[in-house]
């Protein structure tokens, strides 16, 4: 399959520069770029007449199995029923321009394989399986009156409970055995969990280091859910590669991010959505009341990290019917960062985090032919990208998979 895009304004996200020219894709990869390219005999040729072309977006914090904000109800659902919901959510993500997503717990190799084989329509899926949680931690979604913890691998859900160094090593090895691209660990309390406090720290340093050791032994990395500076700093000291959320970081956290060369994945849109709509989509009231603790702090944390040069990556973390707000994160970040900085978080920075620099998040020759054709210039107005109606074409693997043209 060959695709030739003529008369485009091609955006190099790393430099922020546009180049006028053509772009040719062959067998799922970008193979040529420049003026006046020759079209192969069987190529599909589209004259863009000066439209803007940029790499497909990468959302590094999604939950494609979160069909409801009541995450504790997921293990009771049929895995096949949940897979149908996931296929719908993934298809909608693709239509919004997200051609790769990193699932931050819940998705497994079955969904990733189904997408890769074309059985379901959606972004390339980088999965971690189930997040590791201590008893009573953010991934332990039992209410206080529930004693049984069902961790059967066929049960749906976002977390698995493991306590102690030996147990967390086994849990990490098990997720890696199933092909996890990264390991997710709950290093602090959270909004959706029923029995912990947001300001709690979770897992001992020995347990955190053991999880990191297992991931590194498999040439993988660890992403850590953490809010407060204390929880974030412990995770960074243990060697995690990315911190998810980080709403309550301080200057010591920023110094550690820089020293450890780690990434921060803020998820501002989910707190806004949870506050406005969370209970309507299944979030328990006790969890809804926690949202205020992190909502306003998120912007301050983003500004603190951005001004210091911390490597920032795009994440949304939406649940249930709130997934439709995925692109709103672009606008929220633009309150603090320039449009180009926001674009980099959702392309080149995210690609580097997931170990795919040069393969996704770029229009370079040799990269996967995942790209977007836009009506406007997203480096001037992020709304050109945040409004899905402005996406003239979504191209994935060299094929047009969505169009509004």
TrEMBL record:
GO molecular function annotations of the record: hydrolase activity, acting on carbon-nitrogen (but not peptide) bonds
Residue ranges crossing the lipid bilayer per the database entry: none
Domain Amidohydrolase-related: residue ranges: 53-401
Pfam families in UniProt: Amidohydro_1 (PF01979)
Coiled-coil regions listed in the entry: none
Superkingdom of this protein's organism: Bacteria
Keyword annotations: Hydrolase
InterPro entries: Amidohydro-rel (IPR006680), Metal-dep_hydrolase_composite (IPR011059), Metal_Hydrolase (IPR032466), Metallo-dep_Hydrolase (IPR051781), OTAase-like (IPR057744)
Signal peptide: none
PANTHER family in the cross-refs: ALPHA-D-RIBOSE 1-METHYLPHOSPHONATE 5-TRIPHOSPHATE DIPHOSPHATASE (PTHR43135)
Name the UniProt record assigns to this protein: Imidazolonepropionase-like amidohydrolase
């Amino acid at each position: 399959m060959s695709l030739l895009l003529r008369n485009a304004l091609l955006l190099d996200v790393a430099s922020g520069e546009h180049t006028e020219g053509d772009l040719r894709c062959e067998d799922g990869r970008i193979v040529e770029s420049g003026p006046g390219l020759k079209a192969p005999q069987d190529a599909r040729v589209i004259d863009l007449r000066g439209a803007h072309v940029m790499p497909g977006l990468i959302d590094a914090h999604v939950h494609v199995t979160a069909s409801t904000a009541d995450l504790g109800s997921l293990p009771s659902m049929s895995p096949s029923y949940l897979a149908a919901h996931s296929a719908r959510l993934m298809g909608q993500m693709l239509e919004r321009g997200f051609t790769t997503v990193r699932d931050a717990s819940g998705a497994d190799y079955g969904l990733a394989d189904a997408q890769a084989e074309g059985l379901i329509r959606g972004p390339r899926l980088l999965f971690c399986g189930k997040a590791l949680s201590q008893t009573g931690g953010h991934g332990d979604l039992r209410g206080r009156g529930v004693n049984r913890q069902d961790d059967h691998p066929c049960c749906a859900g976002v977390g698995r409970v493991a306590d102690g160094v030996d147990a967390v090593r086994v849990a990490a090895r098990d997720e890696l055995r199933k092909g996890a691209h990264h390991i997710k660990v709950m290093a602090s309390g959270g909004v959706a969990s029923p029995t912990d406090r947001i300001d709690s720290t979770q897992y001992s340093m020995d347990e955190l280091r053991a999880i990191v050791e297992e991931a590194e032994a498999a040439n993988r990395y660890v992403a850590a859910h953490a809010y407060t500076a204390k929880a974030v700093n412990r995770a960074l000291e243990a060697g995690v590669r990315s911190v998810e959320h980080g709403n309550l970081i301080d200057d010591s956290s920023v110094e550690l991010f820089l020293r450890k060369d780690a990434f921060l994945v803020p998820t501002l849109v989910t707190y806004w959505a949870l506050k406005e709509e969370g209970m309507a989509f299944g979030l328990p009231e006790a969890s809804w009341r926690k949202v205020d603790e992190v909502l306003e702090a998120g912007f301050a944390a983003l500004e603190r990290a951005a001004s210091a040069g911390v490597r920032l990556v795009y994440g949304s973390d939406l649940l249930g019917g709130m997934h439709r707000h995925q692109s709103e994160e672009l606008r929220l970040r633009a309150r603090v960062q320039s449009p180009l900085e926001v674009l980099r978080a959702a392309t080149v920075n995210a690609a580097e985090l997931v170990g795919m620099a040069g393969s996704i998040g770029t229009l370079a020759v040799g990269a996967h032919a995942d790209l977007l054709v836009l009506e406007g210039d997203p480096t001037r107005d992020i709304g050109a990208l945040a409004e899905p109606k402005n996406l003239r074409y979504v191209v994935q693997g060299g094929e047009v998979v969505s169009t509004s043209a």
